[in-house]
Amino acid sequence: MRRRRQQGGGDQAEVNMTPMLDIVFILLIFFIVTATFLQEAGIDMRPPPPSDDPPPNEEVDPAIIVQVNNDDQIFVNRLQTEPDRVLSAINSIRAEAPNSAVVLEVYDEASHGVVVTIFDEMKVNEIPVTINRQQGS
Questions:
Q1: What is the reported pTM?
Q2: How far apart are CA 72 and CA 83, in angstroms?
Q3: Which DSSP state fits 60?
Q4: Which long-range contacts (CB under 8 A, 24 or more apart) does 58-63 make?
Q5: Higher pLDDT, 105 or 6
Q6: CATH architecture of 64-134
Q7: For the chain, which terminal residue's Cβ has fewer other Cβ atoms within 10 angstroms, N or C?
Q8: What is the C-alpha to C-alpha distance for residues 9 and 7, in angstroms, rounded to an integer?
Q9: For the chain, how far is it from start to end, CA to CA, in angstroms?
Q10: 3-state class of 135 per DSSP?
């Protein structure tokens, strides 16, 4: 008996993957060879060796606390002060403790202008100042 061939559905077209794999490997080799590998300097994370010297006995002056409440009342170390007398009050305290810094505690509803004026006076007179935001009154 003779077998008949069916026409139209018997042969399937296949894609030859070998040339595509060759091209992928060639591109991979090209990028590996042409890539620049930088050796960036890092930070030395080793701690310094312990010192035999005792730590210096530096006395830290207490901070001067300037508070501006919601009603724009100004307090220097809990003493109410007028806005134009803040710098003189701080200078009198710094006469006794010259290394003391100013901590400016500002409440939420305090006027921005008052706070900026005090902050600017501290910066102009080279007095170290930090600002802490307080909630409430």
A1: 0.56
A2: 9
A3: P
A4: 60/99, 61/97, 61/98, 61/99, 61/100, 62/97, 62/100, 63/100, 63/101, 63/102, 63/103
A5: 105
A6: 2-Layer Sandwich (3.30)
A7: N
A8: 6
A9: 108
A10: coil
Quick check: helix, strand or coil at residue 83? Answer: helix
CA 79 – CA 73 distance, rounded (Å): 10
pLDDT tens for each residue of 86-135? 999 999 999 998 888 899 999 988 888 999 999 999 999 999 998 888 87
pLDDT tens digits, one per residue of 14-65: 878 888 889 999 999 998 888 877 777 777 778 878 888 877 766 677 899 9
Q: CA 47 to CA 51: how far, in whole Å?
A: 11
Strands ordered across the beta sheet of 64-68: 79-81, 74-76, 64-68, 102-107, 129-134
